[in-house]
Design a protein that fits this description.
Elements (H helix, E strand, L loop, with lengths): L2 H19 L6 H8 L3 H7 L3 H25 L4 H13 L8 H9 L4 H19 L5 H20 L4 H16 L6
Keywords: DNA-binding, Transcription, Transcription regulation
Pfam families: TetR_N
Organism: Streptomyces katrae
């Protein structure tokens, strides 16, 4: 196996284990076993667990934001499409909330590389929502609705939190741009 395949296997294993069980609960040896990549190669590709966590989150960010962008781009009404997409995600059998908030909740303000990925993900989400409205204040409110729905769904999985947030987003749109927008 070449480095590219080893890296993909490691990231697949890391994502499955970190998302299901938590970052701190999973050691590098478990990732090595799950991936089938020798420990020496694992540490050559990812010299520290922090670098593996950051790479896992970066790859997840690209896929997650990309999926949401596709859903919005193909929608007649993009704002409700955000919440419809979230409802489908919240209904997936392995849904465990936001991987980025989970990582932040476990690791707090360190390590810096992981915190940077978490912040960049939230900034990218805010930027995407900003493309759906001319009002920065409304984009901020949509972000709060999306994030709040995700947190609620982590506690009670299923589409309901996204559908309630969708209703609130539609009311905000009907009301027009908020003050300071």
């Amino acid at each position: 196996m070449d480095d590219e395949e080893a890296r993909a296997r490691l990231l697949d294993a890391a994502e499955a284990l970190f998302y299901a069980e938590g970052i701190q609960a999973v050691g590098m040896d478990r990732i090595r076993t799950a991936s089938g990549v020798p420990l020496k190669r694992l540490y050559r590709l990812f010299p520290a667990k922090d670098t593996l966590v950051a790479a896992y989150l970066e790859r997840r960010d690209a896929r997650w934001i990309g999926g949401l962008r596709e859903a919005v781009a193909g929608a007649e009404e993009p704002v409700p499409a955000v919440f419809d997409w979230l409802a489908r995600w919240f209904s997936e059998p392995d849904f465990r909330g936001c991987a980025f908030l989970n990582a932040y909740g476990e690791l707090g303000t360190g390590p810096a590389a992981v915190l940077d990925v978490v912040r960049r993900h939230k900034s990218d989400l805010r930027a995407l929502l900003g493309t759906l409205t001319d009002s920065p204040a409304l984009a901020d409110q949509l972000l709060i609705l999306a994030e709040g729905a995700t947190v609620v769904a982590a506690l009670t999985p299923g589409p309901e939190p996204a559908l309630r947030a969708r209703e609130a987003a539609l009311r905000l749109l009907e009301a027009g741009a908020p003050p300071n927008g």
